[in-house]
Amino acid sequence: MPDVNLSFEEKWEKIIACDQTYDGLFFTAVKTTKIYCRPSCRSRKPKKINVEFYNDLLSAEQAGFRACKRCQPEIEHSPHLVLVRKVIAFLVNNYNQKLQLQDIAEHAGVSPFYLERLFKQETAETPRSYLEKIRVDKAAHLLISTDKNNLDICFETGFQSPSNFYKIFRRLKNCSPSEYRNLSS
């Protein structure tokens, strides 16, 4: 499984939000309980200083952690999950590139039609909408953690035009990028 390029802070945001879209891409281990979980686990959230992140469950287990009984991170839920995780990792690591469905399908080793159908069946969304969410999450993170202007963030997160960036950001966050930055500060 390829590593995902997410900072500690970004991973922390995902576990606080119980974000199911990152399940299987990394695991949260709690030093005090010696338990590891999926990012979407609904158990009580640990203190930030007690958390370590692992990119695969084998690493977490080798470090002495055991699987959470609530979210059962060691159990695969679908035979297609490995392919979907591979695609999600590819999207997370390449969100800032100009990606077409054909590029994503070639990486996964399947046809674009099959990928779209399978991905939607497993995640309830298309690879394109999933990529948009990743880009907006990255943009939101940059808006609150840097002083970069909206235009720089737009292009840095892979959007091809400012109008598309503003439209998608507003649709997913219910506010403009500037409003988001002001609300978060």
Walk me through the structure.
It comes from Metabacillus hrfriensis. This is Ada metal-binding domain-containing protein. Strands 3-1-2-4 form a four-stranded mixed sheet. The N and C termini lie far apart (36 Å). Helix content is 51%, strand content 7%. It has helices at residues 8-16, 57-62, 81-94, 101-108, 112-123, 127-145, 150-156, 162-173, 177-184; strands at residues 27-30, 35-37, 51-54, 66-67. The model has no long low-confidence stretch (mean pLDDT 90). The longest helix has 19 residues, at 127-145. Helix 6 (127-145) packs across helix 9. Strand 1 (27-30) and strand 2 (35-37) form a beta hairpin. The radius of gyration is 17 Å and the shape is globular. By secondary structure, the protein is of the alpha+beta class.
Task: Chart the SSEs and their pairings.
Elements: H1 8-16, E1 27-30, E2 35-37, E3 51-54, H2 57-62, E4 66-67, H3 81-94, H4 101-108, H5 112-123, H6 127-145, H7 150-156, H8 162-173, H9 177-184
Parallel strand pairs: 2-4
Antiparallel strand pairs: 1-2, 1-3
Helix pairs in contact: 3-4, 3-6, 4-5, 6-9
What are the secondary-structure elements, in order, as H or E? HEEEHEHHHHHHH
Strand order of the largest sheet: 3-1-2-4
Look at the structure and give the CATH class of the largest domain: Mainly Alpha
* pLDDT averaged residue by residue: 90
Helix content: 40-55%
The computed structural class is alpha+beta
